[in-house]
Design goal:
Blueprint: E1 8-9, E2 20-21, H1 26-50, H2 62-65, H3 67-79, H4 104-113, H5 118-123, H6 128-150, H7 157-167, H8 182-185, H9 191-214, H10 237-253, H11 257-283
Antiparallel strand pairs: 1-2
Length: about 300
């Protein structure tokens, strides 16, 4: 229709100087999902495995700085569509037609692909090099998931869940060991997997996490949605301080320089985020700390 606004998307690898109109029909979106989304996702994952000797904390490689943002951009564009999936016969739990806005199948596919916890992954490694490859692949997957959460493709609570489960759990003397079975392995901390992944979650979602913590949004959750590892804090911001304290312990006590570096990186980001909030509060008389980081701040520190 003349004058109608069309969503556009510049497809990865396109040589066109102008954006390609986003497909509007069911058939074209089905083709898009099959030929582009799947290919890009598989390409990104394959590259992540092939280049697993590259630390996720360094985002200059093509597998991390190019492919993951492209996949996130693609999925975000698809999620904006309000078209019904298939011919409208697919229904949700409320018997309402499923639409692309939900990306209903993505969470299921992602969960099926990445169901193992670090302890379970470690059980399947057969040496130091095997563990390092598995570790780097896991961290890259967590970094991609954190970006999908930040973009609104995955549920926001995933960020809270990961940090609470990792940093508020009760330490065990069996942590960082290889368990005899998957049930035990599932709950064990593997610092070389978990702590760098935490750094990724802080990098991509730290500002919003701090915002939610300051506003004590966790108390609004239904009890069933709160991780069993969650601790009670008298003041909301104590949770942020507790997380930073736990990470500082890893930075101080871990013999692995890889873990130390990741923990330090996360703490630096957390301090920058909290510091920016304090400076904003001071300028706006927000003494009760309910006023958080303003997105239009001009002197906001770089957090990366």
């Amino acid at each position: 229709m003349e004058g109608q606004q069309h969503d556009t998307y510049t497809y990865p690898g396109s040589t066109s100087a102008s954006p390609t109109p986003a497909p509007r029909s069911l058939e074209s979106y089905s083709q898009l999902m099959h030929t582009l989304a799947t290919r890009q996702m598989q390409s990104a994952l394959a590259a992540a495995r092939a280049n697993s000797d590259t630390s996720m904390l360094s985002t200059n490689s093509s597998s991390t700085s190019f492919r993951t943002p492209d996949v996130v951009l693609l999925l975000t564009a698809i999620a904006r569509r309000r078209d019904r999936i298939h011919r409208g016969e697919a229904l949700d739990d409320d018997e309402q037609p499923l639409t692309w806005t939900c990306l209903s199948y993505l969470t299921m596919i992602w969960s099926e692909a990445y169901w193992m916890e670090p302890g379970q992954i470690v059980r399947r490694c057969n040496g130091v090099e095997s563990r390092h490859r598995a570790r780097d692949s896991y961290i890259k997957q967590q970094d991609a998931e954190a970006q999908l959460v930040a973009a609104g493709v995955f549920e926001w609570r995933r960020a809270f869940w990961y940090l609470i489960k990792t940093l508020e759990r009760v330490a065990s003397h069996k942590d960082n060991t290889v368990a005899s079975g998957d049930d035990t392995a599932e709950v064990l901390l593997q610092a070389d997997f978990h702590i760098p992944a935490v750094a990724c979650w802080i990098k991509h979602n730290g500002r919003k996490l701090y915002d939610e913590i300051v506003k004590d949004k966790l108390k609004l959750w239904e009890e069933k949605d709160v991780p069993v590892e969650a601790r009670h804090f008298d003041h909301p911001t104590e949770r942020w301080s507790f997380w930073a304290g736990r990470l500082s312990e890893f930075a101080r006590d871990q013999p692995d320089d890889f873990v130390k570096g990741a923990a330090c990186h996360a703490v630096e980001n957390m301090e920058a985020i909290a510091g920016a909030s304090r400076r904003y509060n001071a300028r706006h008389d927000g003494g009760d700390e309910t006023c958080i980081i303003c997105p239009t701040m001009k002197d906001d520190p770089r957090v990366d």
